[in-house]
Amino acid sequence: MTKSEPTIDPSADNAAANDRESPAGWDAHEVKRRILAQGAALGFDKLAVTDTDLSKEAPHVLSWLAEGFAGEMGYLERHVDKRLQPSLLEPSTCRIITARMQYLPADTQPIEVLESSDTAYISRYALGRDYHKVLRRRLAKLAEQINLTLADTQPKFAFRAFTDSAPVLEKALGEKSGLGWIGKHTLLLDKEAGSWFFLGEIFTNAPLPIDEVEVEDACGKCSACMTVCPTDAIVTPRRLDARRCISYLTIEHKSAIPEEFRKPMGNRIYGCDDCQLFCPWNREAPTTTEPDFAVRNGLDSPRLVDLFTLSEDAFLALTEGSAMRRIGYAQWQRNIAIALGNSTGGAEVEHVLAAGLGRVNAMVDEHIRWALDQLASS
After folding, report:
1. E strand or H helix at 144, and its extent?
2. pLDDT tens across 158-170, in order?
């Protein structure tokens, strides 16, 4: 790393928590019970409470960054101190409420889509409304309800929501609070819920009772996620080289995709779910009943050629309110060009690829030419 490692001092947060004892007339256990009930009413599948001590995570996080596994995601290093010490993100934080919400839509047939090379595969989390907005709105509403409930307490307590848009070690906090264990694919896993869920957090300075739950690591000897990864991105159990990950390449990587990864990408144009699809704990994972996560615009199995021929305005209309809009039109075209190069081809495919030359930029043109070369040589 190019800068000195942050000093992690969880004792400061723990001491602050001990100093903030419950004021007269304030029952911490009752407040927690109310929070859990309100969270369930807002659609969260499970909530828990933990402290802010993430000192055990520091060696793993810092070595992962030092090895360059974050790729172009420089923001992960810029705010690593806040990730490892939550009170730097939100001063006086001593407790974190963690929450999860299932997102897998029913009957999207992901395996069948992956096996149909002329169809676009989009990560199942992105088929519905942008989860950042959905979870942030629900968590903010929960935080508002709690703040109103405790408005007259002394000292004043505050609750603030975060959802994947701030420097928060979500999976580590989820594991610490008992929402699951971090599997070999680096995702949070639960025996009943699998891993098809979003995470969110509420930071607070209220000394709520902590959930003292240690979840068993039930991955055992299974390494299905590592074996099935198309690009061998899971270099060792619970250690992901993002630079090789298709989710990273299709979403976070802005420039040309290295040629060694283009064939393994197959028809995956936004994200990748293989490590979840073949995880035994997801065989009977529940699907979502949340309307906001239902499939929109038929994006669970669209034709590649139909998506590639969209104009930029049509792309923006198709992805309005979706997490997919963040990649922009150039990356969208780049990703689909690669998928078309991996398709069964034919006159229609070759025609739409050739027609796309010069439409966006030189980077996209490079991938179109690669696709045409692949089809010509197959």
Report:
1. helix 131-149
2. 888 888 778 999 9
Asked: is 10-108+126-204 a CATH 3.20.20 domain? The reply is no
CA distance 231 to 253: 15
Distance of CA 164 to the CA centre of its chain: 7
Tokens 């499970």 -> residue: 46
Domain edges within the chain? 10-108+126-204, 224-377
Q: Is 328 left (phi over 0), alpha (psi -120 to 50) or beta?
A: left
**Concatenated DSSP letters of 66-92:** HTTTTTT-THHHHTHHHHH-GGGTSTT
Active site residue: 164, 211, 217, 365, which one? 164
Whether 27 is a known active-site residue: answer: no
pLDDT tens digits along 206-237 = 999 999 888 999 999 999 999 999 999 999 99
pLDDT digits (tens, 9 = 90+) for 165-193: 789 999 999 999 999 999 999 999 999 99
Identify the pLDDT of residue 354: 98
Encoded amino acid at 286, one letter: P
